[in-house]
Amino acid sequence: MIGYNRQRKRVITVAGIGNEFRGDDGVAIYILKSLEKLVPTHVNIAKLTEDPSNLLEIMRHTDTLIIVDAVNSPAPPGTIFHINVSSEPFPMDFFTVSTHCIDLAQTIELARMMGLLPGFVLIYGVVGKNFSFTTSLSQQVKDSAEILKNKILSDIDKLLVIEKGEMQETRKLI
Fold first, then answer.
1. Is 78 among the domain residues?
2. What is the pTM for the complete model shown?
3. Which residues have a Cβ under 8 Å from the Cβ of 112 and sit 6 or more positions away?
4. How many structural domains compose the chain?
5. Burial level of 89, CB count in 10 A (0-12/13-18/19+)?
6. Tens place of pLDDT for every residue, the chain, 174 residues?
């Protein structure tokens, strides 16, 4: 689990969901391992290896949540999708196949109904190619992981300079 920073006005958490022993399903964990060394110490990193419902507890303690997960899609492997679910419902057909017990869309909408959804939630999905039992990422996914890592670092930089009262402006920037 992560340690929460209660002394700052804005708590930013980057959460990755995946199984690093299931090939490309581990892309989020791969990205978070590299982000741990690069993000400011007051940005929380949460590696979720079981299922997205663990996000509910994280949501209780964060203002801004960036989620990374693998996607099984007909799009080319390595394709990066992003959706801002802060104010709009999660498109239920976005993550149509899940390797998790409860899927991410259900978790997000449950959090919204329970009043737990942070003020800003951005989800990144990386289309996987191989979900078999291996610890290796496919080359397309590994290449996209580097791109997405840099995008998330840029997102964090933007979020850190925007005051809480300007959250609406944040939605336009990302």
1. yes
2. 0.84
3. 89
4. 1
5. exposed
6. 344 444 445 789 999 999 999 999 999 999 999 999 999 888 999 999 866 778 999 999 999 999 999 988 899 999 999 999 987 877 766 554 455 556 788 889 889 999 999 999 999 999 999 999 999 999 999 999 999 999 999 999 888 876 444 544 444 444
CATH number, position 102: 3.40.50.1450
Query: DSSP states of 73-102 as a string?
Result: -SSPTT-EEEEE-SSS---TTTT-S-SSSS
Which structural domain range is residue 132 located in? 12-173
Question: Is 4 contained in some domain?
Answer: no
Strands ordered across the beta sheet of 12-17:
43-48, 12-17, 64-71, 120-127, 80-84
Q: Please count the helices (runs of H) and the strands (runs of E) in the chain.
A: 5, 5
Give the residue among 143, 151, 147, 21 at the shortest CA–CA distance from 77: 143
What type of residue is 15? A
